[in-house]
Each structure stands twice: as structure tokens, then as C-alpha cells.
Design a protein that fits this description.
The protein is α+β, with helices and mostly antiparallel strands. The protein has helices spanning about 10-20, 65-75, 80-85, 100-110, 140-150, 195-210, 230-235, 290-295, 320-325, 350-365, 380-390, 395-400, 420-440; strands at about 5, 25-30, 55, 85-90, 95, 115-120, 130-135, 155-165, 165-170, 180, 190-195, 265-270, 275-280, 305-310, 310-315, 330, 335-340.
Length: about 450
């Protein structure tokens, strides 16, 4: 059987390779690192996590992302298996030791006899490959991006993504900070640094005055992704934006002082040893020296030492609703499929989920059959519908296509008029039933 070629060794590419191999289809996985590095990757490892180490909520009963976790586990996802095996404390969220996670993914693919890993940059798409999945992510190499643009006939869209700083755990003053998750969900997994009103406004003033990295010309016309705004952009939106966003003080009780904090900075564990913690929501354009000065104004971080400082980088994605069919094939060249962030999904799990579907679609094609897309009432189907236009294309939505995390707004509304938790349960219970029906005719993959 001729192999499926997969370009890109990130989460989507690795998941696609795994799904093909588990279906008995040989794969050649192409990864350009270390031959060509990117501006954000730190290693040559497959499935490297370059931003947060969090896969977000693992609550499959009432959250869309938790439901997506569950669906991917049911479809033997390599990414979720590696995440579960390298989990670190994060309350009700799924967060991972990023080094262990990446090593687990690479080890699994390296041990799979149907997967061949090629370390070299592709500057063009060879026409001889009759089945190729492009999973090059938001930092597609310039030469390959030009080749893709030539096929699509449309210019890529772009947005910003960001990296939060990481601090050494033993440099945090725990006589000021304390360990607790909001509303005590999960364990006491976050370090909380409290600010009173005066400290909060002094911090805002320092962010405003700090020297920032200069914008490139292309950055001036590129929108930010709302779920990952730079710190200074949130400050510019108003003095209370942070206090009602990543620094909200709700669900927390300071054991050191009786009065409620005006704002709280939360810091989440980043590795299995518990030696590194990342500052939640603090991606920034401040210069590195300024970051150290400003972040050390936060109570508990006066002596903080940083393993990594924050930054902003550009992400690119294609106009998927106009370019891709329901099985992620490029309409102008059906031998090509796209997967991951380049399709316009946002988030580690969402990227891997589209890789999972692309791998299943390509494997079915190799076996001479057509795999039906998952129902739109499932998390997988809702996410697929977002990037392919769904069954009924909404011209207004397609005209303003932007990257998005999975959320219940992408699902068809459930019957009934319940609200809040009751309505979220209606979404997830329906999704479980419909996923089971979708999987029922298919034989289970070999364990």
C-alpha cells in the first residue's frame, strides 16, 4: 500500500500519523526541525508544546473542551494518551509535563512499524504523492507557504498567538502567595499572588510605561486572537479588564490576610517535577528586561527567577470554509488534506482533533471507502463544521472566518429550554449518544 505523507510533526501531524498507522496504513511523517528551526520552538522534538502546558478543562459533562477530550480518548488518540500519562496538577484542567508529553508521543511513533519519520524541510509539494496531509501549523515555512498559496489562489489570513513567561517555583515567596484552585476544584494546584487595589493599579501603570518590542508592518493589520490577548492589549482596554479576566480574585481565599484581594495572579505548574510554573494569561510584547522588572512588582514575585520570558508570534491559517470539503480535502487539489491550526482551529486539543479526523479520512480512502464525518452534534463534528462551513454555509460567518476554540456555540442547539448546567448537560449527553451511533458500524482499532 502506498504511504500517506504527512507534513509537520506537531500535535495534528503526529495524531494523523497515529490514526493512519492504527488503521493499517503506512505513513511518512515529514518534520523540518532540526534542519530548519522556527522562531518559537525550543527543541527538535515531535509534538513540542510551545505555549501553555494546559489542555484546558477535563470536565466532559459540562464543558465542550472536556467533551472533546472524551471523544478523542474513545477514538484512541495518541495525543490524549500521552497527555494523560504525563499529567501534572492543575485542578479540574488537564495540564502536562511538556518534556515528558513530547517524549511519549515521539516514542510511540518511533516504535510504530508503519510510521517512517523523515527529518528534512519540504519547500514544495511533490505531485507524485497522491495522498498528503498538510499539518504544518501556524509557523509554516515560507517556501512551503508560497507553494500552498499557489494552489489555493488565496492569501493566508493571520492572527497573533502568545507565550506566557515561566518562573522557577523556588523563587516564589510563599509567605505572600498560597496554593489553591478556584472554588477548590481539583487539588490546591495553582500558586496565587494577591494584589490590593493600590498594587493592582501600580502594576497596570508599570505595564503601560514598559518598553515594548516594535511591531512589524504586517503586525499592524493582523487581528489578535481574543482567547490569548497580550497583557498590554488587555490593559489598554480599560483598568478593570485584567481584574475581570486572568486576574479575577473570585473563588479564592487568602490564608495570610483576612481581606479579599482586589486581584490575583495565578501561576500553574508546568512540569512533572513541580519546579517550573507559568504565569497564566501573561503573554506580552514587553522587552525581556522590562518583563522581569514589571512582573517582580507582583506580590510574591519580588525575587522571581524566570526560565522563559513571554512573547508574541504570528500564526497563519487558510480560509478553510471556502477551500476545504467535508473531509478536509483541498477542493482545488483533492490529493491534499489540511489539519491542525493551519485550518483555523485554536488550541492544542482542537489541532490534534482535526489531525485525528484527517488521519481517519485518509486511511479510509486508502482502504477504498469513504469515512462519514462525525455528527455535527459531537464535539469533533462541531469543530469540523466550523472550519469546513458545515452542512449549510452561512455566508456572513464564512466572510469573517476566524480561529476558534471548541465551544457549545458551534453545536446545533439541543431540544428544550434549559439553561446553564442543565443545558450543557443536554449538549454532552446528546453528543455521547450520537458519537456511539457513529462509531457502531466501524470495527474497533487493534489495541
Amino acid at each position: 500500500m502506498a504511504p500517506v505523507h504527512i507534513v509537520g510533526g506537531g500535535l495534528a501531524g503526529c495524531e494523523a500519523a497515529w490514526q493512519c498507522a492504527r488503521a493499517g496504513v503506512p505513513v511518512v511523517l515529514h518534520e523540518m526541525r532540526p534542519e530548519r528551526r522556527t522562531e518559537t520552538h525550543q527543541t527538535a522534538a515531535l509534538a513540542e508544546l510551545v505555549c501553555s502546558n494546559s489542555f484546558r478543562s477535563d470536565d466532559a459533562a459540562t464543558s465542550a473542551i472536556g467533551l472533546l477530550h472524551e471523544e478523542m480518548r474513545r477514538l484512541d488518540s495518541l495525543i490524549l494518551a500521552a497527555a494523560d500519562a504525563n499529567r501534572v496538577p492543575a485542578g479540574s484542567a488537564l495540564a502536562v509535563d511538556r518534556i515528558g508529553f513530547s517524549a511519549a508521543v515521539e516514542a510511540a511513533l518511533g516504535a510504530e512499524p508503519l510510521v517512517t519519520i523523515v527529518r528534512a524541510e519540504l519547500t514544495a509539494l511533490p505531485p507524485a504523492w497522491d495522498s498528503t496531509i498538510i499539518a504544518t501549523g501556524p509557523l509554516t515555512s515560507p517556501a512551503l507557504a508560497v507553494a500552498i498559496a499557489a494552489l489555493t489562489g488565496r492569501q493566508s489570513l493571520a492572527f497573533f498567538d502568545a507565550i506566557a513567561p515561566i518562573v522557577y517555583r523556588d523563587s516564589i515567596d510563599m509567605t505572600i502567595a498560597w496554593m489553591q484552585s478556584r472554588y477548590d476544584k481539583g487539588g490546591a494546584d495553582y500558586i496565587n499572588c494577591p494584589l490590593d487595589r493600590a498594587q493592582y493599579h501600580a502594576f497596570l501603570a508599570a505595564v503601560r510605561r514598559a518598553e515594548k518590542i516594535e511591531y512589524h508592518e504586517w503586525e499592524r493589520i493582523t487581528p489578535y486572537f481574543e482567547g490569548c490577548l497580550p497583557l498590554e492589549v488587555m490593559v489598554e482596554r480599560g483598568p478593570e479588564t485584567l481584574a475581570h479576566g486572568p486576574m479575577k480574585p473570585v473563588g479564592l481565599t487568602n490564608p495570610h490576610r483576612a481581606e479579599r484581594p482586589y486581584a490575583v495572579v495565578q501561576i500553574r505548574q508546568d512540569n512533572a517535577l513541580g519546579t517550573l510554573f507559568n504565569i497564566v494569561g501573561f503573554q506580552t510584547k514587553m522587552k525581556h528586561a522590562e518583563q522581569k522588572r514589571v512582573f517582580r512588582l507582583i506580590p510574591g514575585l519580588a525575587q522571581a527567577e524566570f526560565a522563559r520570558l513571554g512573547g508574541i508570534h504570528r500564526n497563519t491559517f487558510i480560509d478553510s470554509p471556502r477551500l476545504l470539503d467535508a473531509t478536509l480535502r483541498l477542493s482545488a487539489a483533492p490529493r491534499l488534506r489540511f489539519a491542525g491550526q493551519i485550518t483555523g482551529v485554536e488550541g492544542y486539543v482542537e489541532s490534534a482533533a482535526i489531525g485525528l479526523l484527517a488521519g481517519r479520512f485518509a486511511a479510509a480512502e486508502r482502504h477504498g471507502r469513504t469515512a462519514p464525518p462525525p455528527p455535527p452534534t459531537t464535539a469533533l463534528g462541531a469543530l469540523l463544521g466550523h472550519i469546513t462551513g458545515g452542512h449549510i454555509v452561512d455566508p456572513e460567518r464564512v466572510a469573517s472566518f476566524q480561529p476558534m476554540n471548541v465551544n457549545f456555540g458551534l453545536f446545533p442547539p439541543p431540544e428544550g429550554r434549559g439553561r446553564g448546567r442543565e443545558r450543557r448537560l443536554a449538549y454532552t449527553e446528546r453528543a455521547r449518544r450520537d458519537l456511539a451511533a457513529w462509531l457502531a458500524p466501524e470495527p474497533r482499532a487493534a489495541a
